[in-house]
Specification:
120 residues, alpha+beta, 7-stranded mixed β-sheet, 27% helix
Length: 120
């Protein structure tokens, strides 16, 4: 019998693209983050969707320069073969100062991130 795919997982078990994106996001390394995304990936943050490396790169650069914050990985959950939800706590100088965000990743056939939705 296989493991329950909806159980909480050790963050060390995250697919390479997801762990790479999270490291790059924390380091504010746009090039490294883009390397984890499919060329036609879509990222949705604060209700706005960015498509492709050019738009996503602009969003990453703007987001990295807007506020100063630290991140703490709270957990990861595999929802199916290609989908993972990672919860991170951000603390910084943005309005409210503290937020737990859900990063919902969908991987494509080549192991790259095809879709990312970031929600509270």
């Amino acid at each position: 019998m296989g493991a329950d795919p909806s159980r909480s997982n050790d963050p060390a078990e995250l697919p390479t693209a997801i762990s790479g994106y999270l490291v790059a996001h924390t380091a504010r390394d746009t090039a490294a983050a883009l390397a984890t995304l499919a060329a036609d990936a879509a990222v949705t943050d604060e209700g706005k969707t960015y498509r492709g490396h050019a738009e996503i790169g602009q969003w990453l650069t703007a987001a990295a320069s807007e506020y100063t914050y630290t991140t703490e990985l709270l957990g990861a959950q595999r929802t199916d073969a290609e989908r993972w939800t990672v919860t991170q706590r951000l603390e910084g100088d943005f309005p409210g100062g503290l937020v737990d965000l859900r990063f919902q990743f969908a991987l494509g056939g080549h192991g790259l991130i095809e879709q990312l939705v970031i929600e509270v």
